[in-house]
Amino acid sequence: MTSDHISSLRNPSSIKTRFAHRFVLALKKLSMDRASSSVSMADRYKRYRKVRAAAYASMASSVGPKRAWARALLRKIRNRKMGSNLMKRLGSRTGLLKKRTVLKPRNHREMGSEQENSLRELVPGGEGMEFYRLLNETGHYIKCLRAQVKVMKNIIDLYSN
Amino acid sequence: MSSEENMDRGMLMASSEVDPFYGSNWDSIISLNQEMDNSFCDIRSSFAQNNGVITQRASRNGVISLDHCQDSEHRVLGDSLNGKKKRKVSFGASFKKAEEQYCKDPSEDNESPEEHDEMNKKVDQNCSTNLRGKQGVDQANNNAVGAEPSKENYLHMRAKRGQATSSHSLAERVRRERISERMKLLQELVPGCNKITGKAVMLDEIINYVQSLQHQVEFLSMKLATVNPELNVDVDQILSKNMLNSQGGIAKTHGINPGLSPSHAFRGFSHGNFNGLPGTIQPFYPLPQTIFDNELRSILQTGSSSNPPGQKE
Lengths: 161, 313
Hints:
By secondary structure, chain A is mainly alpha-helical. Chain A has helices spanning about 1-10, 15-35, 40-65, 70-90, 95-100, 115-120, 130-160. Chain B is built from 13 helices and no strands. The two termini of chain B are about 55 Å apart. The chains are: A mainly alpha, B mainly alpha. At the A-B interface, helix 1, helix 2, helix 3, helix 6 and helix 7 of A face helix 8, helix 9, helix 10 and helix 13 of B.
C-alpha cells in the first residue's frame, strides 16, 4: 500500500490535486455566497459546517464512485442537505422522509466485536459490509483522509501568510 | 462399480467445473503442480489435434489424471476428486460418455491412434490406482492424518496436517488469512504500528488513527471557516502554491518536530494543539519532497486550469 501512496503523489491527477481543485472551487463558491465575516457564533458555526461538508463532498467526489465509502459519504451529505431543506419548508413531516437506513443483510452487522462495530461507525458506509471489505475501505479511507488533511493545511498556510 | 461411478462423477464435475471457468481453475491447478508443466504441455499439444468438443473436454480431464498420476501422487488427484465432489455442479451425459471411454474402454477411441492408445492405457491404470488412492484418501480425510489436503471451492487452499478439513473450517481459515493479510497492509498505513501484533490492538490503533484524522479535518475546516473571507486568489495560483507549500511544509515540520513519535502525538491531540500536529504524519514519508518537485513542475508547465481527466483511486 505504500507504493500506492507514493504513486498517487507522483501522478499529476492524483487524489490530492483533484481534491485540492474541487475543494478550492467549493470554498470560492462558499465565500461568494455567504455574507462577509459575520462574527456571531451561529453564523460561524454554520460556515464551519458548510466548509466541512464541502471538504468531505469534494473528497468523496474526487475519489469517484468506485469506493463504497465515497458513495456513502456523498449520500449522507445529500441526505443531510435535502433533509435540512425539507425541514425548512415542511416542518414536522420530514421526520419520516429523512430516515434512510441501509438495510443490508443483517449478518454483517450482528456478532461483530466491539472494535469492529466502532470501526464500522467511523468509516462511512461501513454498516452493511463484511469485515474484509470494511478493512479494504478503511485503508483507502485513511489514505484519502491523510491527503485531505495535508491539502487543507496547505490552504490555511497559504491564507494566513 | 459404485466407486468407479463416483470417480466418474467426480471427474465429470471436475470437467464441467473446469470448463466454465476454464482459465482460472486451470491456471491454479497448473500452478499447484509446477513440476509437471513440461509433461503437461506435451500432452496437451498432442490432445490439441482432437476433433470435437466432448472429446477435448474429456481429454483435458484425462490430462489431469495423467499428470497427477505420473507424479505418482494419488492423493493429489484423489483430493481434487474429493474436493470437486463437494461442489454442486451438474454434469451432462455427454461428459459421462467421454469419461467412460477413457476409463473403461481403452480399446475404443475416436481420436488419433498412437498417442491416445498410450494415453488410454495409462489413464486406465491410473483410474484403477486412483480408485484405490481415493478410498485411502477418504479414510485419511476423515482422520485428518497423513497431510491429506483438500481443495477449497473458489480459492485453492490446502489444509495442513492435523487441521480440520471440513469445508466450513476451510472457508473460515481462508477468511481469517485474508483478514490478517489486510491487517498487515493497514499496519503499514497507520504510522507507528510496526511492532504491534494482534488483531485487537491493531484495530484499536486503526480506530484511534481514523478518529484523529477526522478530528483534524474538522478542526481545519473550522479554521478555514474563520480564516478566509478573502478568496480573490486565482485557483491556479492556489494550486501551485499548494504544491510548493506542501513541499515547504514538510521541510518545516521535519525541522520543528524531529523527536515526536506519531502515535504518542496523535493520541494526545486536542484542538488547541495544532502546531504539535504537523510532525505526526510526515516523518514516515520523506520521499514526497522530491516527488512534489516533479508534480509542481508539471503543473506549472501544463497549467492546472483544466480538470484532470480520469479517475484513479
